[in-house]
Amino acid sequence: SETFARVNCVEILHTKAIWETILNGPLSSNFYAMLRAHSIVFTEKLVGGMKPFAVTAMGSHRFAEMKEEIAKKIAANLPSIMPYSYQYTTEALDMEN
After folding, report:
1. Low-confidence ranges of the chain (pLDDT < 50)
2. For every residue of the chain, which 3-state class applies, written as one string?
């Protein structure tokens, strides 16, 4: 009941443990593949209507390399950024209730 839920949230299913499993667990490669795909789509959307100019200036191969590099940097920096989200995630999930 209420005590069981609180113990689970504090000792087992707390936000830090959830993110550690996502980032380092047995299915982390799936997460990083999804993160890469979304990062590339995000970069495409961010460039938006400027894409033709960027591709002309950089070349299509370099433009594709840039998107991959951005995705790699996001993945590399994510583990050090996630702890800043723990409190918000805990409140947003509200798993005790």
Report:
1. none
2. CHHHHHHHHHHHCCHHHHHHHHHHCCCHHHHHHHHHHHHHHHHHHHHHHHHHHHHHHHCHHHHHHHHHHHHHHHHHHHHHHHHHHHHHHHHHHCCCC
With contact defined as beta carbons under 8 Å apart, do 66 and 46 qualify? no
The pLDDT of residue 1 is 67
Cα 2 to the center of its chain, rounded Å: 31
Sequence-distant (6+) residues with CB within 8 A of 85 are: 15, 19
Look at residue 49 in the predicted model and tell me its pLDDT.
95
pLDDT recorded at residue 10: 73
